[in-house]
Design goal:
It holds the Pfam family Coq4. With about 150 residues, the chain is mostly helical. The chain has one domain. The two termini are about 25 Å apart.
Length: about 150
């Protein structure tokens, strides 16, 4: 039930967030194009992630899926909250991130150890949340992870 409530809140808030808070242009790239990037590249891994979960790129929200690829954090609701903790630890500060953390912590107090671990991992990584990932799609995922000390949960 708690996952359903948070997913519903997300679906209701996604469009206004895209419209009023996300200033960068959409990437306008398909999964088909992404999987044509060189194997091992961020673009290829992003395409595989999207295919694996039967997702398509969300305009102006493409970085979110990149964060999943780089951190290896899953897509369950509690894992989505953990990823926001990871990004908070990494220095990202948005109203949306804070609201997800507040609601996620209230709804998932049993996952606080996971959230703390994610925050610590984000804190130990060099800041990567602000990068222009569209320009980095040809870069090897492993190089990005190593360069920014991004480790999995």
């Amino acid at each position: 039930m708690r996952a359903f409530i948070l997913e519903t809140i997300y679906e209701l808030s996604k469009k206004p967030y895209q419209k009023w808070f996300k200033k960068q242009p959409p990437w306008d790239i398909s999964v088909k194009t992404l999987i044509k990037y060189p194997k091992g590249s961020l673009g290829f891994h992003l395409g595989c992630f999207l295919l694996q979960h039967d997702f398509s790129p969300q305009p102006k929200l493409e970085n979110h899926d990149v964060f999943h690829v780089l951190t290896n954090i899953g897509i369950s609701v509690s894992e989505e909250v953990a990823m926001q903790y990871y990004l908070l630890g990494n220095g990202k500060r948005t109203i949306y991130l804070i609201s997800v953390i507040v609601l996620g912590t209230l709804f998932y107090p049993d996952k606080i150890k996971l959230f703390k671990k994610a925050y610590r991992k984000g804190k130990t990584a060099y800041p990567f949340h602000q990068l222009d990932y569209k320009k980095l799609l040809y870069q090897p995922v492993q190089t990005l992870k190593t360069t920014f000390l991004i480790s999995s949960l």
